[in-house]
Write a structure and sequence with these properties.
The chain has 703 residues and is an alpha/beta fold. The protein is built from 28 helices and 24 strands. A six-stranded mixed barrel has the order 19-23-20-22-21-24. The chain has a five-stranded mixed beta sheet with strand order 5-4-14-13-12, with helices on one face. A hairpin with a 4-residue loop joins strand 21 and strand 22. Helix 11 packs antiparallel against helix 14, helix 11 crosses helix 15 and helix 20 packs across helix 22. The longest helix has 14 residues. The structure holds ligand MGD (2 copies), iron/sulfur cluster and molybdenum atom. The site of iron/sulfur cluster (SF4) has 14 residues, from helix 3 and helix 9. One ligand MGD binds next to helix 21, strand 13 and strand 19.
Length: 703
């Protein structure tokens, strides 16, 4: 209990209690900070408010902000040890250039001049604020693109409609492919503040989140679309439809009704592996609720059927009127601390401010705000991340600039990516750490400041914009990404034209307020000071908005489509790509664990997290393990048509079903993406990370 209070966390999973060893000294006597700087956690999209403790110019501690509306003082194990990421010995400190195969230290002017004189075409265009560059994409395509595409198709715009408060007020919370106990731990605390809620978890594994549920649906891999269409079928058949809502605010109901006719409970049971009774109970529980909330994460997005699954989720919420009010929303939980950033402000899936590439009016509005000719605003999105990699393989792209992402660990089908990066004439890697698995391929390394060393805002899943602040100086000559971009604009002689007078992130924020004004993601009433004072402000936030008010989208039933109505869209379940067969009989599922962050450049250097989770493992059902005569804790290889992950620890556990295995993707040295496949959602282009056919072999004759 003391430990739990110490870490301010009570997610119901005992393991967290062990995550903090008081003797490891988060605030030891020698490390009492002289001052505390308020900021927002730099890991996940929950967006917890915290303070960084600074002593003698070094970050020595963190603590939760008790007044913050998101976390009310609590932090998860990663957040609690976050100051260790700043001081790690593998920080990138100086620009480095590859000369005769060795990396040599150079100055910033030379580093940026190198870029320019190399006629770094893609980069040059990209730096011109994205104007005219087609080939620009964000890590979000590995993560949120599916939710974005789904929302745009259903509602006419991106933007998760609900608020975290809904977790506390909903009667029913349906979590689909979202393991919040590991990946958004503080959301569990919000859920636990709602004793009346019925929690339904849809996940092929018995995750820690499933253990918190009233009803767990251990669905077969990627059969969610069949399940949701089956729920819609039952809701319509039993007349649990909110007819007034459907009539007033949606289009397409008749087509939807026809499209779900064949999703009878028996057929859906056969596809999903669930019983017809459980499917029926889920439909009735959801549709009879006063307010029902659906939250989903990567179990939905990481799929070739992801966008359609999001549309089916939106359909279910719309026909039951579960959107735009307290406790009711179809809500995509986002991933990183600022996963919303490239969505709202970037050039990836939309023009800044959720403007549409294809809308002439939107392009004109942007051109006039920026005072540039409209022809310079692209009229279609460029290549998406996997298509950029494809273009590199086909030598249509010769140079690449990778910023704040580590694809050698995180991109699917590693072999193909390695081939692509090796064939580049020039690769720039701009990262806070060095070396990283991706920087091994770089010609030029640019050292970046990280969380704790720079200023700006993050937007969390509930569209809450929170402030991040600089507590300490970056190491060596590392610079904030923002400063690198300004320096580059200078080197390219476009600074006065495109970023006139900009010195600090506050200048970009002021322009962004103007660019977002009147849009769904309206920031125009915000100021850094007000954001700070309230622990974050939710958009839309035009001037005059009450900062304490909980903000939701579509409360008035008006959507961002041309006719203002939400679209009910028919969807079709299909089997996932690469079904298991005799040679590769298991479905490989990949994902996360609470202790680690993605490619482990950060958490791999935090002693307590490393001690808890030092190496990769594969989870397998005991029945399969016995059949293959594998011993618990023995070493195995995970093999697919594309590659082999060697020497992974075998964990026998009933939490995975027979015929499935699960491997975390955090470990570069046992990289799960050596075996995942190059299959992508046709609409969002997001990778299908959650299903690949593999077999499991004993490693090198060892047991
Ligand atoms: N500790 C920690 N927290 C993180 C991160 C981290 O790296 N570490 N990363 C952050 C980021 S960027 C993201 S995107 C989020 C991701 O958060 P989550 O999406 O919760 O994480 P995952 O573990 O990738 O996948 C979630 C679940 O999907 C399930 N799943 C697999 N296949 C299917 C399926 O066919 N149907 C259904 N219904 N479920 C399926 C998996 O079994 C898994 O439990 O976490 C964020 N938080
Ligand atoms: N098999 C499998 N693969 C997956 C997933 C999965 O579930 N299964 N999940 C996918 C998802 S959802 C995601 S989000 C991706 C994540 O994949 P990545 O984005 O590749 O993961 P990170 O480790 O977060 O990489 C961030 C990089 O930026 C660096 N960095 C940190 N802060 C800064 C900064 O301020 N500036 C700069 N310039 N660099 C910085 C870090 O050191 C690190 O190298 O992985 C995807 N890959
Ligand atoms: S829940 Fe997410 S935002 Fe909160 S402390 Fe943990 S990692 Fe940071
Ligand atoms: Mo993500």
């Amino acid at each position: 209990m003391t430990l739990r209070r110490l870490i301010g966390l009570d997610t119901g999973a005992e393991r967290y209690a062990y995550a903090v060893d008081p003797s490891s000294g988060y605030v030891s006597a020698q490390k009492i900070p002289d001052r505390w700087i308020s900021t927002t956690c730099g890991y996940c999209s929950v967006g917890c408010g915290m303070f960084i403790g600074v002593k003698d110019g070094r970050a020595v501690a963190v603590r939760g902000n008790a007044d913050h509306p998101v976390n009310r003082g609590a932090l998860c194990p990663k957040g609690l040890a976050e100051h260790h990421t700043i001081d790690a010995d593998n920080r990138a400190r100086y620009p480095l250039l590859r000369r005769n195969s060795a990396m040599t230290r150079i100055g910033w002017d030379e580093a940026l001049a190198t870029l320019v004189t190399e006629e770094f075409y893609t980069l040059g265009k990209l730096v011109q604020l994205g104007l005219g560059t087609p080939n620009y994409d964000g890590n979000t395509t590995l993560c949120m693109a599916t939710a974005v595409s789904g929302y745009k198709r259903s509602f006419g715009s991106d933007g998760p409609p609900g608020a975290y408060e809904d977790l506390e007020t909903a009667d029913v919370v349906l979590l689909i492919g979202a393991n919040i106990a590991e990946n958004h731990p503080i959301l569990c605390s919000r859920l636990r503040a709602n004793p009346a809620v019925t929690i339904i978890v849809v996940d092929p594994r018995v995750t820690k989140t499933a253990m918190l549920a009233d009803l767990h649906l251990p669905i077969r891999p990627q059969s969610d679309l069949a399940l949701i269409n089956g729920l819609i079928h039952l809701v319509i058949e039993h007349d649990l439809v909110d007819h007034d809502y459907v009539a007033a605010y949606t289009t397409g109901f008749d087509v939807l009704r026809e499209s779900v006719r064949e999703y009878t409970p028996d057929r859906v049971a056969a596809i999903t592996g669930l019983t017809a009774d459980v499917i029926y109970r889920t439909a009735v529980t959801y549709a009879s609720a006063r307010a029902a909330f659906i939250a989903w994460t990567m179990g939905v997005n990481h799929s070739t059927k992801g966008t359609e699954t999001v549309n089916a989720i939106d359909n279910l919420a719309l026909i039951t009127g579960n959107i735009g009010r307290a406790g009711a929303a179809p809500f995509s939980i986002t991933g990183q601390c600022n996963a919303m950033g490239t969505r709202e402000a970037g050039f990836t899936s939309s023009l800044p401010g959720y403007r549409r590439f294809e809308s002439e009016a939107d392009r004109e509005a942007l051109a006039s705000l920026w005072q540039v000719p409209v022809e310079r605003i692209p009229s279609a999105r460029g290549l998406a991340y996997p298509d950029i990699v494809e273009a590199v393989l086909e030598r249509r792209i010769r140079a690449l600039w990778i910023i704040a992402t580590n694809p050698i660990v995180s991109f699917p089908n590693l072999g193909a990516l390695q081939q692509a990066l090796e064939s580049l004439e020039f690769l720039v890697v701009q990262d806070g750490y060095y070396p990283t698995p991706t920087s091994e391929y770089a010609h030029l390394v640019l050292p970046a400041a990280i969380w704790g060393e720079k200023e700006g805002t993050y937007t969390n899943s509930e569209r809450r914009v929170s402030k991040v602040n600089r507590a300490v100086a970056p190491p060596g000559e590392a610079r904030a990404d923002f400063d690198i971009f300004l320096h580059l604009a200078q080197a390219l002689s476009v600074r006065d034209e495109l970023v006139p007078g900009w010195q600090t992130p506050a200048d970009a924020f002021e322009e962004w307020k103007r660019v977002s004004a009147g849009r769904l993601c309206d920031y125009s009433g915000m100021t850094y000071a007000e954001i700070e004072r309230h622990g974050g402000l939710q958009w839309p936030f035009p001037p005059g908005t009450d900062p304490r008010e909980t903000r939701r989208l579509y409360g008035d039933g008006r959507f961002e489509t041309p006719d203002g109505r939400a679209r009910l869209l028919p969807t079709t379940w299909e089997p996932f790509p690469e079904a298991p067969d005799a040679e590769f009989p298991f479905v490989l599922n990949t994902g996360r664990t609470v202790e680690h962050w993605h490619t482990r450049t950060k958490t791999g250097k935090v002693p307590i997290l490393e001690r808890l989770s030092p190496s990769a493992w594969v989870e397998m059902n005991p029945r399969d393990a016995r059949r293959l005569r594998l011993r618990p804790q023995g070493r195995v290889d995970v093999v697919s048509r594309r590659g082999r992950v060697r020497g992974v620890e075998l964990r026998m556990t009933e939490t995975v079903a027979p015929g499935q295995v699960f491997v975390p993707f955090h470990y570069a040295e046992a990289n799960a993406n050596q075996v995942t496949q190059s299959a992508f959602d046709p609409i969002s282009r997001e990778p299908n990370y959650k299903q690949s056919a593999v077999r499991i072999e004993r490693s090198g004759g060892a047991v």
